[in-house]
Batch of 4 targets.
Target 1
Amino acid sequence: MLDIYFKELMHSLPLFFKGMGITALVSGISLVAGTLLGVMCGILRAVKRFGLSKIMGFYADYMRGIPFLVHIFIIYFILPETGIQLSPFPAAAIALTVYAGAYISEIVAAGILSIPRGQREAATAYGLNAFQRMRYVIFPQAVRVILPPLVGEYVLLVKDSSIVSVIGLTDITRVGWLTVQRIPEGLIVFGLVGILYFVICYPLIHLSHYLEEKISYETH
C-alpha cells in the first residue's frame, strides 16, 4: 500500500514544485518589502524624536503581540467589509510584509542603539548632520550587528508563510493538504512538505551561521 501511495505522491510532484514556487515568491516579495519597512521603522524607533519612537514601538509591539493568523484574517476577510477586496496572493504578501516589518524594525533599532554614543558625538564634532551621521557613521557599523538576526528572521518569515494556506493560496502547505485528501498517508505527504520548506530555508540558515562566525571572528 505504501508503494502505491508513494507512486501517487511522485505524480503529484509538479503540484508541490508549483507550490514551492508560490511559497518562494510570496516570501521573497515580503522579505524585500518587509526589510525596507523594518529598516525605516527601526531607524525612526532608534532616533527617539517627535514621538516617532513611541509610535514605531507601538506598531512593533502590536504586530508581535497578535498571532499572524489573526492578521491574515483581518486583511483577507475583514477588509472587504470596508470595500478593500484582495485576492489571496496580495493579501498574503501584505500581511507577511507588515508582520515581518515589525520584527525587523526591532532588530534594526537594537543594532543602531548598540553603537557607542561616542561615535555619534565624534560625527557631530566633524559637522555631520543627523542624516549624515546615520548614513555614514552609525548605520554602516550597526549592519554588522543587524545581519545575523535579520537573516534568522528571514527563515522565520518563510516558515510563517505556511499560514497563508488558510486563505486558499496554493503554497506548499496548501498543496500538502489537498494531496493528503487523495493519499491518506500524512507522514509521507507532509514529510515531503517539510523537505521542501527545508530546501528553501537551508541556504538562509547557512548564511546566518556564516555571518555569525565571520562577525565573531572579526571582533576577536
Note: The chain has a mean pLDDT of 88.
Target 2
Amino acid sequence: MPTQYAVCLVTVCDEKTASLIAGGLVEGKLAACVSVIENVASTYRWKGKVEKSREFLLVIKTRKKLAEDVEQFVKRNHTYTVPEILFLDITHGSREYLDWLGANTLFTTNIPKDKAGRIIL
C-alpha cells in the first residue's frame, strides 16, 4: 500500500554543507530525519570528462507533499551547479515509524500556489 512519504537522496561535497542542509530541513520540519553518510565514492560525467570524488550522501525522510519545498531548500543551500536531488516513494514501512515521520514534518507545502511549479535558482 503506497504511503504519503518519500526518501530524498542528495549528495554534497563537504560536511559543512551536509550539516547545514540536514539541520535546516529538520529544524524547518521539511524532513523528520536526515541521515548523513560520509565518504561516498562517486564516479560521474561532468562537462565531457569522467570525474571521481568523495561526497556525503543525505538520506532525507519527508512527506511527498513537501518535495518542492525540500528541493528549493536544497538548491538554495547547495554548492553544486546541478545538485543531485532524487525522490523515491516509500511504498511500505512500519506503522510506528511512518506515524513518527508524519508527526515530525509539516502537513502541507509552504510554497504559495502562485509560485508552485517554479524553480528558484
Note: Residues 5-108 form a domain with the Alpha-Beta Plaits fold (CATH 3.30.70.120).
Target 3
Amino acid sequence: MILATVLVSGARARTWISADGTKTFEGDLQSYDEATGAVVVIARGGSKMNFKQDVLSAEDIAWLKSQSPKSSGEVKELPEVLPDPDDKEADMSKPVQVYILLGQSNMLGMGSVASLESAIKTKEKYPYLVDEAGGWTVRKDVRNVFMMTFKLQHNDWMSVTNRNKVGPEYGIGHILGYVTEAPVMILKSCIGNRSLGWDLLPPGSEPYEFEGKMVPGYRGTPSNPKGNGEKVTGEWYAGKQYDDDVDGAKQILSDLGKYYPGATKYEIAGFFFWQGAKDTGNAENSTRYEKNLVQFIKQLRLDFEAPDAKFVVATLGQTKKGAKGNEGLVLDAQLAVDGGTGKYPEFKGNVISVYTNPFCHGGSANGHYGGNSETYMDIGEAMGRAMVELMGQ
C-alpha cells in the first residue's frame, strides 16, 4: 500500500508559526498526511502534538506539502527485512526513476556468489534474493543496467541469476524497488582503479599548486595543466573517466526503451558514489578530496539536469573514524559532505554519507574486501536505506 503520509527519520527542529502569526513553537515533524491535513510534531521536551495543518501559517503548510511524496516517486514504509519480490511489473504510466551508480572497482561488484549462497544458507541473510524453491528471485520492477567505458556489461531485471559476482546494486535495487511504485532503473557506469583527483575529476576543477608542482585541472594534462576546455586526444587527461562515465550513462538514457522495455520517460532520482581507494595513494588527491567531492556532486546534477536528485556517498569500509593519514583525510571528506553536518547548507536534506565500517566483514577496498559478498550486500542495503531516508525529507 502506498503511504500518503510523510514519515520522517532524524528530522531537525523547525520553528512553526500559527495561522494568525501571533504564536511560534519549535518541534520536529514526525508525520504529515496531506490527504487529511493531519500533522504530528514532537515538541521540544519530547511531548507529542497532534493537530490539523489549518492552524499553521501558509508558509508552514507549503513546507509540509513540499515534504509529501511526489506522484512519480511515492514511497512505501520500509520494513526491517524485505519480502520476496511479488513478480509484478511497475506502474509504467510513471517515469522511470533512474539511480546512477559511480565509483571504482568495489562499485563494480567483487563479492563472490559462492560466499553469498553461504550467507543465505548458513546465516539466513538476504531472504529476498531467493524464492521458496531456493532459486534466485527476479525483480520485474527494477532494471539492472551496467555500462563500463561504453561497453554494456548487462541489461536485465534485478536478479543474481547468471552472475558470479555481486555489488552494492543488489541491496540498493531491492530496497528502492520495494518502496517505489514507479519503475526503477539502477544504472551503473564506472570502471576500477580510478581516482577522484585525476580520472574522475569533474568539470569546474581548476589546476592548483601542490608541493611545488602544478596539479592539472579538468581536461588538463601534466604538460598543460589548464587545458583548453576540450577533450584531449591521444593521451589520458584529468577528468577523462568522468567524461566517459557520464557519456556512457547518457548513451543508455538516450535509448531508454531498449534498456527498460516499455519505458518512454525518466527522471534522474539520485546518485550513489562508492570510491576513494585510489585517492588514498597520494597526498595531493587525499588533501583535495573534499573540494573535489563537493564539485563532483554539484556537477553531476548539472550534467544530468537534475538539481533535486538525491546523493548518497559511501566511505571506505576498512577506514575507522579517527583514522590518520591519507585514509583519514578521505574519510573525513566523505563524512563532511553529509547535509546533516551543516558544513554545506545546500546539501541539507539531499546528500547523506554512509559510514560503512560497521558493515565491513574484513579486508580492505584495495583487496576488494576479500570477495566477501556480505560486505557488498550490507553496504548496498545501507546505501539504499540512506536514499529512502532522503526521499522522506
Note: The chain has a mean pLDDT of 92.
Target 4
Amino acid sequence: MLARFFTSSKRPFSSLNDQEILALAISSEEDDARIYLAYADQLREQYPQSAKVFEDMAAVEHTHRNNLIEMHRQRFGERIPLIRREHVNGFYDRKPDWLRANQSLDQIRAEAELMEKGAYRFYLAAAQRTSDAATRKLLGDLALAEQAHEETASMLGERHTPEDVKAEEDQSAHRQFVLTYVQPGLAGLMDGSVSTLAPIFAAAFATGDTWQTFLVGLSASVGAGISMGFTEAAHDDGKLSGRGSPIKRGLASGIMTALGGLGHALPYLIPHFWTATITAAVVVFFELWAIAFIQNKYMETPFLRAAMQVVLGGSLVLAAGILIGHG
C-alpha cells in the first residue's frame, strides 16, 4: 500500500525513446494550438487585434505539428503512440480551460510568453541530459522550434498589436476593471462607511456600552453589505451596460460595504469606552480619506472636490450620530 502511495503514475522523461518523445511533442503542439485558439475566442469581441495574434500563433503551432508528424512518419511509420504531457513527470504543465476562462488580457499575454519560454527551457535541458546522439539532436531541434515560436509571437504582436492598439486595449481592460470592481466597490465602501456612522456613534453615546455598540455596528454593517450586494447584482445584468458580471459586482459592493461599517465598529471590542471611541474616530478619518483617494485615482474626481464631498459629508453624519446619542 505504501509503495503504491509513493510511486508516481507518471513516467520519467529519461525513460522515453525517440518515438515517444516525438509523439509527446506532437500532442503538445496540438494542445498549445487549442489553447491559443481558445484565447482568440475569449478576446475576439473586446480585443480583436490581440485575438488575431493568437489565431496566427495557433497556425504556427499547427505547422510545427504537421512537420513533426511528417518526421514521425519518415522514422517510425504511421502509428503515433498516445502520450501526453500529463503522462510524463517534470513536463511543463498547461492550465485547464476553466482556470483560463477569466484571465485578463495581460495575464493571457504573460501566460503565452511563459508557455513558449517553458517549452524551450524544457527541451533544451532534456537535450543536455541525454547521451544518445539522435535523441540529443531531436530535442535540440525542438528547443530551437520553441525559441522560434517565441520570436514569432513577438513579430505577430508587432504586426497585429502595435503600441497604439495595445495601449487602447490596455485602456479598455482598465476601464472594464473600474466598471466591474472599483465602481461598485467604491459605492459600497462609501455607503458602509458613511451610513453606519450615525447608528454606531448614536448607540455608543446613548448606551456607553462598548459591547452593545459593537453589536449594533456589526448588524448594521453585515445587513448593509447583504443589501448592497444583492441590489448591485439584481439591478443590472451587465449585458447592455457592459459593466461585467453581476455576481462580481455584487460581491465587490457587498464586501466593501460590510468592511466600511466594520472598520469603525471593531474598535468597540475594546472595553474602555473612550479608548474605543477615539480609535473608531481615527479609523473613520482614514476611511473617509481613503474614499477620496480612490475617487481621485480611479474615477478621476479632483482630489479636493472628492475630499470636500466625502470628508464633509461623513463629518456631518458623524456629528448627527453623536448628537442623537447624547439626546
Note: The chain has twelve helices and two strands.
